[in-house]
Amino acid sequence: MCISMYLVAYLVGNLHLTSAKSETIVTNFMGTLNLLGLLGGFVADAKLGRYLTVLLSATLTALGITLLTIATSVLRMRPPACEGNQECIEATGSQLALLYAALYLTALGGGGIKSNVSGFGSDQFDSSDPKEEKSLIFFFNRFYFGISIGSLFAVLVLVYIQDNIGR
How many CB atoms are closer than 10 A to CB 7? Predict the structure, then answer.
C-alpha cells in the first residue's frame, strides 16, 4: 500500500518519533495487512461469502482512510512543530491513538479485499472452455499489471505531492 511509502517520513518529521519507533509501526502495519488476508479468506469461505466480505472490507478500508485523513489533518493530533534548536516534543499516546486505529482499520479492510477481489474476476470465466481459459490468463495478466501500474502511479504522485505541495 502506498500508505507505507511515506509513513516513516511522516512519523519522524511530523510526529517526532524516533526512526526505530517509526519503522516498527510501519513494519507492524504491513505485517498485519498481509496476515489479515488469511482472515479475509477464511471469513469469505466459511461465513459471509466473497461479495459480502469485499463489501464489508471496502467499507472498513474507506473508514480507515477517512480516519487517517483526520488524524493527519487535525493540528491537535500532532505535537507542536520544532523551531530552531528546540528539542522536539514526541507525539503523545492520545495523539497516536487515532493514527493507530486508522492504520489497523485500513489493514483489516485491506486484508479482506486482497484475498477475495481477484476471485471475482476468475468467476467470470469457464475454465472447461479452452477459449475462456486463455481469456482467464489474459485477465490475470492485466489484473496484476493494473495493480502494479496503480502502485507505481500512487508512489510517483505521492513523491510529487511531498516535494511540491506538502507541508
Answer: 20
In terms of domains, do 100 and 130 share one? no
Closest to 135 measured CA to CA, from 123, 148, 147: 123
**Which structural domain, as residue segments, surrounds residue 151?**
124-167
Task: Report CA 163 to chain centroid distance, whole Å.
Answer: 21
CA dihedral 46, 52, 55, 58 (to 10 degrees): -10
| Tens digit of each residue's pLDDT (9 = 90 or more) over 55-83 | 999 999 999 999 999 998 888 888 888 88
Q: In Å, how far are 8, 9, 59 from 151, measured between CA atoms?
A: 18, 18, 21
pTM for the complete prediction?
0.83
83 and 137 share a domain? no
CB 29 within 8 A of CB 7: yes
Rounded to an integer, what distance in angstroms lies between the CA atom of residue 76 and that of residue 54?
34
161, three cell numbers: 505531492
